[in-house]
Design brief:
The complex is a heterotrimer. Chain A is mainly alpha-helical. Chain A contains 19 helices and no strands. Chain C is built from 16 helices and five strands. The chains are: A mainly alpha, B alpha/beta, C mainly alpha. Chains in contact: A-B, A-C, B-C.
């Protein structure tokens, strides 16, 4: 009996409720498979998703543009005007987006022209950090929607250390960073602990903890002696002390700060953690199959807690970056700037892989940086960026849809990678 | 009603699950469909029931070709099915389950529960069932749930009734009762398709037998054919139904279990004051019908159950109250009952699965770092040693066949330094070839002086492996008997009848 | 020995049972009792009496005001609270379960004590508290009903927030253009359905994780409505964002019932529609064919399939229906209360609605009560804000969220979601 027929013989019959498991049949050659993976696989899907989302964004921009609306009124008389107006609106907006995020050709010299790219990296810094927080939790089968709350408490802790304590230069910033990360970790850890101890679903608890953190920080911000700047009535903190501020990387003309280096280090650390460490092995095992992990002697419940501690810590790093790097003049309760939610899309786009998240964070950082200059230059509201981002993630989550739009081949035997681990789906 | 299946072919990707299958069931006939696990029986029945669409072939009822686009059509045509995994909604009452899909309604679209209840009672009385239409299905024992399935099919006037592996969850006595019900149905003119891999039952009731193997019909047989004839037809070669093993050389008691009780999360006492021991170098088989506490007992041994009282000691060291990690470290090897759920991580590679329960310490981990070179070398060795058929150690375990997945689990567990080995349903769902490999590995382990516990519901496996047999019934031990105890006695014990001359505490 | 046979297994006698108890409830009650001791007994208030006003000035039947001695009330209530906690601990000690009524009574007593304490020296308008509760709860209840339907059929609905927001936006624009709030209501439902279509398409057809789709959809709807608001609405406010509002309709006689009359029967048409919706969803779910099939699909889709129910179609249309209901509720923001659309005006109400679904254990009536509870908690803060509260308003605002965390942590009994909730049904 040949090996192949042996394989076929022992295949379990697929039960109707199961995902059709890829059969261990004839596999295509390695290179053929690689080629199919590139065309039909995840990398291509990601690129195409970005293209579709930008296209939808273009439609929205054109549709709401006043010039387009005016010319459309006499479309049948002079359709050329309408097309020209559409081109102007879309090209104008997207070129502003590009010039605001990568290179500004209207500025003299490279040093000024490249400034938008450094802005992109500045915006990307907290996105990557918070994205890592969501991604680590994903890999362990948990959905961390609590980035906002974790960032807020981290910002509060780091901020307080930053403006209230008197410490020597290097030590001060280190303590502040650490305080923020610990606060974020604790806030995330609460959700992990609740899941471990009571089975409470982390999606619900993290959403609820977001609001609790929001109101708690709001309270601290308007309470003299807590976070409120002395002598002020605004719910805002005093500015950070010089010793607590993350140093600029490229000098005072650029906003890019040392936080970016911290985030690179965090990415490397997550790579090591997930791919090379014993703990990461357990993380992944629990994420893929918590039952088997338990039988294999892994402390599944503690793993949930550890994972949420890490997740909260990274989200905390994002909060720290905001208060010690980006907005050092004191902050209010909007300091999270929606990064906690953007982080979910970053993690999904990066498929929860550390370098994927890094790249996705930079892309979304570019959208943010460019979005503001687009609003300033072309009057297109920055909210369009949110639309484009969420569309990207929607399309990436549904590869068959993208393939259908572009009529791409389906990668044959490759198993469909779900973005979230089983535990979430199984609930 | 006469059922005819002509040239049905069903493919899943490269796998041909059904290859031009022909089958005729005459009115009022009990037709057994016999085949190994994975031979394609269930696929065929799902095609018949409209759950799968056949790639080729026809289904005829009373010589009229049928085109089923879903189970609704099949039911309307008069086909009913008693599924292997009951298709009942646990939180619904019996009446609600029976009425689902063809609900009687009153004015304003309101459900007419009294009519549904009456229907349940009427059919129950016809067969002498005692079923409360308002009982929640989840509160009923499995035997009763199966009867609800039968009522459900009959309430839709099924003329052809398919029983898919109906005896897997029943005691021998319940099986006898089911056979009696089938005879009654037959007498009422219902055609019956009886899917099974158990030879004894087939010979007890079938009018005709069709054997399928690897998705093809390989022959018909009459109920008078011998077990060996049927078995070789089913497997495709002469089968030895026994395992080649020498006499055991038991040492002293290694595992001692005293007064062990387990309570499940719903508050049921699922294992009740159980005491036994296992000697080094012997195989103790824990037998019993599925769901009599064997699973929970096994999990308690491994530290996987939360509410456990009593004492477990291995070589004099206590195991109770220890974490799974500590118990594994104490030298307990474990093959879990549900391989895909508990045994492997499908998305992990073979190499990763082979280190799954050794992910915290040397040699696979040093100073928190995975030792990838060691892991891969180890994996390559084990793939060769255990003859795991795969393209490479980086293949995802989920893509292996059941038999090869089980070899991965065995390789992982047996390559640790063991002081005890527990294998739960180690051959469930495997083909005959893999079963032989698993059985010989278990005997080898025994012969190396390790105490072995095997949990099995299959009498064939029980008698083949056991040096001693412990029979569980409703969470308690009904008796511990020698390995050569006759099947009849074992059958009675599994139904809860203590054997002559042994007490429950034997 | 050998002649003894045990009863056959088919007789089906239930296995031996023990009651598994948990210390969660006594611990939680104890914490609150302790809080009561600290606040109501040892934190004195500047005034001696607390006044509760039960009737609005315009009521035909005027109830007298109730005046309670603040400190004495606090002490009496605290003693009762401590006793209840002790009783719950004793129950668990005796291996018995803590009954639901005990927790309800505890909550009510705590609330009375709290109101007396917080409102010392002031006159607390109970009627205002209740009327505001209903108003604040309207979108929550519609959202929760949408959530109940969607989750009962097996699709997790995180997108309630998006459905509410889409409904709010569409109703504002459409009612403004047409000048007819009823058309706006229909528009709101349609907008909710559109959001649901996306959820259904991705979750049911493409098997994308339902939580992911829900989260992303919320972001998408926020982005889209904010973009259109900034780009289109702000420039044409008169034309596009000045919808007519629904007037309050007092139902004769019923609206004159003391206390509950003004609360229930002096409301706008959306509120009356809400009463009907709650009844219809409850009746439909538990007493009609539609409901039986819907629940079957959410519990065990395969079993439903084997009796000829089209799982995918049923899910698709019911998720859409859920969107329509939630979208309808969104109209309340623009046509019922605020009177114009604003960026992100739902402000997390969709998530509270989701919490109400879970807190209400996927039952429309209980979810409605949970939503009312959350509405009440938000409104207490409003009322106390006016009369001057000793508790920072932020902590009052936290209450619904903290309560939900306690709820999902199982303090009010283990809640069991529909078994197949969140699991896509994949046929080979």
């Amino acid at each position: 009996m040949s090996d192949k027929s042996r394989e076929a013989e022992v295949q379990p019959e697929p039960a109707p409720q199961q995902t059709a498991r890829p059969e261990a049949g004839e596999e295509p050659s390695r290179w053929g498979q690689a080629a199919r993976d590139i065309v039909g696989g995840s990398a291509m899907i990601s690129v195409l998703s970005v293209i579709i989302a930008l296209a939808v964004g273009a439609v929205l921009i054109a549709w709401t543009d006043e010039r387009v609306q005016e010319t459309a009124a006499y479309f049948f008389a002079r359709p050329g005007d309408t097309f020209a107006a559409i081109w102007e609106a879309v090209a104008g907006a997207y070129s502003a987006l590009f010039q605001g995020s990568v290179y500004n050709f209207r500025r003299e010299g490279f040093a000024a022209g490249i400034r938008p790219l450094t802005e992109t990296l500045t915006f990307a810094t907290p996105l990557i950090a918070a994205g890592l927080g969501v991604g680590v939790a994903f890999r362990v089968g948990m959905f961390n929607i609590g980035g906002r709350g974790q960032m807020l408490v981290a910002a509060a802790a780091a901020g307080w250390v930053g403006f209230a304590l008197e410490l020597p230069a290097v030590l001060h910033v280190a303590v502040a960073v650490l305080a923020g990360m610990v606060a974020g970790a604790i806030w995330g850890g609460i959700a992990g602990l609740l899941k471990a101890r009571t089975g409470a679903h982390e999606v619900i608890t993290t959403i609820m903890l977001n609001f609790v953190a929001l109101y708690f920080v709001a309270y601290l911000l308007r309470t003299p002696g807590a976070l409120q700047a002395p002598g002020s009535n605004n719910p805002k903190t005093p500015p950070m002390q010089e010793t607590a501020i993350l140093p600029d990387l490229l000098g005072p003309n650029y906003n890019l700060h040392f936080g970016f280096i911290l985030v690179i280090a965090a990415t490397v650390f997550v790579w090591w953690l997930m791919n090379r460490s014993s703990l990461g092995f357990q993380f992944r095992a629990v994420g893929e199959n918590p039952h088997a992990a338990r039988v294999a002697g892994m402390p599944v419940k503690m793993i949930y807690v550890y994972a949420m501690l890490f997740a909260g810590g990274f989200a905390g790093l994002a909060g720290v970056n905001q208060v010690l790097g980006t907005v050092t003049t004191g902050f209010g309760q909007g300091i999270d700037a929606g990064i906690g939610f953007d982080a979910i899309t970053v993690a999904l786009l990066g498929r929860s892989r550390p370098w994927g998240i890094f790249a996705a964070g930079i892309l979304f950082g570019a959208f943010k940086a460019g979005g503001f200059s687009m609003q300033a230059a072309e009057g297109v509201p920055v909210d369009i960026v949110v639309v484009v981002q969420s569309l990207i993630v929607l399309f990436i989550a549904a590869p068959p849809l993208v393939r259908a739009i572009f009529r791409l081949p389906t990668p044959g035997a490759a198993p469909r990678r779900t973005l979230t681990p089983k535990e979430v789906a199984a609930k | 009603m006469k059922l005819e299946i002509r040239g049905i072919t069903k493919r899943f990707g490269a796998l041909v699950a059904n290859d031009h299958i022909d089958l005729v069931v005459e009115p009022g006939e009990i037709h057994a469909l016999l085949g190994e696990n994975g031979a394609g029986k269930s696929t065929l029945m799902n095609v018949l029931y409209g759950l799968y669409r056949a790639d080729e072939g026809d289904i005829l009822l009373d010589d009229v070709p049928q085109h089923f686009s879903g189970p609704g059509d099949a039911m309307a045509a008069g086909i009913g099915m008693v599924h292997q995994h009951f298709m009942l909604i646990p939180v619904f009452t019996v009446a609600e389950n029976v009425m689902l899909g063809h609900e009687p309604t009153k004015a304003g679209g309101r459900l007419d529960l009294p009519t549904a209840r009456a229907k349940v009672r009427e059919i129950s009385e016809r067969f002498g069932f005692d079923i409360d239409p308002d009982a929640l299905v989840e509160d009923l024992p499995v035997g009763v749930q199966q009867r609800v399935e039968i009522i459900k099919a009959l309430s839709r006037d099924a003329k052809v009734l398919v029983f898919d592996e109906p005896t897997a969850v029943l005691t021998p006595q319940e099986t006898d009762e089911l056979i009696e019900i089938m005879r009654q149905l037959k007498a009422a003119g219902t055609s019956i398709v009886f899917i099974t891999h158990k030879l004894r039952e087939v010979r007890a009731i079938a009018d005709r037998i069709t054997v399928i193997r690897l998705g093809k019909v390989v022959g018909e047989a009459s109920p008078t054919a011998s077990n060996v004839e049927l078995a070789s037809l089913m497997v495709g070669r002469a089968v030895e139904l026994t395992v080649d093993k020498g006499a055991s050389v038991p040492g002293g008691p290694a595992l001692v279990v005293e007064d062990l009780s387990v309570i499940n999360p719903r508050g049921d006492v699922v294992v009740k004051n159980v005491s036994f021991d296992v000697c080094a170098g012997e195989v103790l088989v824990i037998a019993g019908v599925q769901g009599n506490g064997q699973t929970e007992l096994t999990e308690a041994l491994l530290g996987l159950q939360e509410r456990v009282t009593g004492r477990i000691t291995l070589d004099g060291k206590p195991l109770t109250g220890r974490s799974v990690r500590q118990i594994l470290d104490a030298g307990v090897g474990f093959v879990p009952e549900d391989r895909t759920e508990d045994g492997i991580v499908a998305e992990f590679t073979i190499a990763e699965n082979l280190m799954l329960d050794r992910s915290t310490a040397a040699p696979f981990v040093k100073a928190g770092n995975l030792q990838l070179d060691y892991r891969d070398q180890f994996a390559r060795e084990k793939v060769t040693e255990f003859d795991i058929r795969t393209q490479g150690i980086d293949t995802h375990a989920g893509r292996l066949s059941g038999g090869n997945q089980q070899k991965v689990v065995l390789a992982r567990e047996l390559s640790r330094d063991l002081r005890m080995f527990v294998a739960a349903q180690p051959t469930r769902g495997l083909d005959v070839g893999s079963i032989e490999v698993v059985h010989s590995r278990i005997i080898e382990t025994r012969d190396s002086g390790i105490p072995v516990i095997v949990i099995s519901t299959e009498l064939d496996e029980v008698t083949a492996l056991a040096d001693r047999i412990l029979v569980m019934y409703r969470g308690g031990i009904i008796g511990i008997v020698p390995g050569d105890t006759s099947r009849d006695v074992l059958g009675l014990m599994m139904a809860g009848e203590a054997p002559a001359g042994t007490g429950a505490a034997a | 020995m050998s002649t003894e046979t045990t009863a056959p297994a088919t007789a089906g006698s239930a296995p031996e049972k023990t009651v598994i108890t948990s210390w969660k409830a006594p611990i939680a009650l104890g914490v609150f009792a302790l809080l009561a001791v600290v606040l109501f007994v040892f934190t004195p208030r500047p005034a001696d009496t607390s006044t509760f006003r039960l009737s609005t000035p315009s009521d035909v039947i005027q109830l007298p005001e109730i005046v309670l001695p603040t400190h004495a009330t606090g002490i009496v209530m605290t003693v009762l609270l401590v006793a209840l906690s002790a009783y719950s601990a004793w129950l668990v000690w005796q291996k018995r379960r803590v009954p639901l009524w005990l927790i309800v009574v505890f909550a009510v007593l705590f609330l009375i004590a709290f109101l007396a304490w917080a409102g010392a020296g002031a006159s607390i308008p109970i009627y205002g508290l209740l009327i505001g509760t209903v108003s604040l709860s309207v979108p929550l209840i519609f959202g929760a009903l949408g959530g109940v339907i969607s989750e009962r059929v097996g699709v997790v609905n995180i997108a309630i927030e998006g459905q509410l927001l889409a409904g709010a936006f569409a109703s504002a624009v459409i009612a403004s253009i047409t000048g007819n709030p009823y058309v706006g209501l229909i528009g709101a439902a349609v907008a909710g359905v559109l959001v649901s279509f996306v959820l259904a398409a991705f979750a049911i057809k493409y098997f994308v994780d339902q939580i992911i789709v829900g989260v992303v959809l919320n972001v998408l709807v926020i982005g889209l409505t904010s973009f259109l608001f900034s780009q289109v609405l702000t420039e044409n406010t008169e034309l596009l964002n000045r919808p007519p509002r629904f007037e309050q309709i007092a139902i004769p006689i019923l609206s004159e019932i003391p206390v509950i009359g003004p609360m229930l029967f002096r409301q706008s048409i959306i509120v009356y529609a809400m009463y009907v919706a709650v009844f219809l969803v409850w009746f439909g779910l538990f007493h009609t064919r539609w409901g039986l099939r819907l629940r079957a699909v959410g519990e065990h889709p395969q079993a439903a399939d084997t009796v000829g129910i089209k799982v995918t179609t049923l899910r698709f249309w019911n998720v859409s229906l859920a969107g329509a209901i939630a979208g309808f509720g969104g109209a309340y923001f623009t046509l019922g209360s605020v009177g114009a659309f604003n960026k992100e005006m739902t402000a997390g109400m969709g998530f509270i609605a989701l919490a109400a679904v879970i807190f209400g254990r996927w039952d429309p009536i209980r979810a409605t009560l949970a939503a009312l509870l959350f509405g009440f908690a938000s409104n207490i803060q409003n009322v106390l804000g006016i009369i001057g509260s000793p508790v920072p308003s932020e902590f009052m605002l936290m209450v619904p969220y903290v309560v939900t965390i306690f709820a999902v942590a199982g303090l009010v009994g283990v809640s069991r979601p529909p078994a197949a909730n969140g699991t896509p049904y994949i046929k080979s």
